[in-house]
Amino acid sequence: MSNTVEDVNTLISRETLAGRLPVPGSARLYNSFGILLGAFIAIGAASFNYLFGASLAYIGNTQLAIAGWLLGLMLALGPIYLASGMISFKHGVDPVDAVKSSFGTRGSTLMLVMLLASTIGWSFVLVAMTGQAAGRLYQILFNPSGEVSNNIIALACIVMLSLIWLLLRKGPAMIPALTRITSPAVLIIAAVLLFLITRNVDFLTLLSTNVDSSESFTTDPLLQLAYGVEFGVSNALTIVPFFGGIARLIRKRSHLITPGLVGSGLLGAGCISAIGALAAIATGSTEPAEWVLKSAGNGFGCIIVVLLLLANVGTLISFIYLAGVSVQQIRFFAKLRWDIIILVLLLPGLLVAFNTSSLIDRVMTLLAYNGAIFAGIAGVMFSDYILLRRQRILPAHLFVKDSEGAYWFWGGVNWVAFAVVLIATGAYLSLFNPMTLEVSGLFRYIGAGMPAFAVAIISYYVLMRLVISSSTAGGYNNIDILAKKKVIVGL
Known about the structure:
Blueprint: H1 2-17, H2 33-44, H3 48-57, H4 62-91, H5 95-98, H6 100-103, H7 109-142, H8 150-168, H9 174-197, H10 203-207, H11 221-237, H12 240-247, H13 258-283, H14 288-326, H15 331-334, H16 338-346, H17 349-353, H18 356-367, H19 370-388, H20 415-431, H21 443-446, H22 449-468, H23 479-483
Helix pairs in contact: 2-9, 2-13, 2-14, 3-13, 4-11, 4-12, 4-13, 4-19, 7-8, 7-14, 7-18, 8-14, 9-13, 9-14, 11-19, 13-14, 14-16, 19-20, 19-22, 20-22
């Protein structure tokens, strides 16, 4: 009998972690600082951060760019974590369910779309980068006088997609175990790469070396710092759709902020991108596989490239897991088994396998505007939960699908929240165009991401104060009455 009870409890726990049911504290995966730190390092140290680092080098002043990048990350990550993770941590809910208290039962579709676009988009970029690096490696080893084989690129992508499915098909249990291995490996590889690129030129000399002024974004020192800060803030804003999915798996409140700041911010994106910037200066190449081989030689370099490719697995399974949980908001996916959900999410990757270059260019173009939108979403969530609701919501009402729920607002949508996101996005784009890198005069002093975040917080607070002064919409003024109300909940 005890074995049966244990089996049932294990099944319930697995279905909770792989689904949208609120995750209780006892079932949460991240029960120690070290395990959680490893998960954040895996996300922050993704290979595309080496590419971001290469762009830092072309700001024009390597020191100011790296300093600004780190400053932007540290400045933005704390409030972004609070905005996007508090509800998910406290109530164990998926980020799309968490955002219903501010955007409405149906309005949460915006977060769902943005989350899927980000998680799947970045995952396929990583898969494509893995395939291209494998193709380049094969060419160097077996066909040095020929071209990179598209068949090898496609095969590497398919192998990576298959590996992700095998690791995730039974739920997220493999994520902590895998990141305990990949996270230290990523940091060791980064340290080795730093050693290799500073063998012939010492670290301080390399840090003081800049690209030719004709290739730099600007020669204005203040603007160079502003670019670095903004790139760091933009990187931090991309965590908005991800963090809630991680926060619902964190057991201790004291672990909500610090592991992310250290793991994803400082050790992950911070160090990896800084090394990418220095490597671009040292080798003149922005492609990680290429500058690794230039720095380490074909023999040792090949080993490092292979390890870098394998280390991407920790990041990929984290991203796809978050997408797999959130996509169950769509009724079709909610009826499928977990392993089938993951399979369906990964299937478009087969198109990626045979068209990697085009995919990277197109997806990166779309993702460039993520920061503009996420600044508004994060500002609304921060203002709503922390300032207006004073950290009190009704978790059962997050799962009420009709007008009986507290978060129905107007037809299931909080139109004020959507208006504020548009206002904040407009403010962001008026200061900084992430595609052309054109900036306004104010950008050099205030950047774009944090002002847009602040605009969203303030405008949402003021507008919603006006609304709730004469309305019960959103459950702000009548929460005690609603708490006693019997409602029908459902996934």
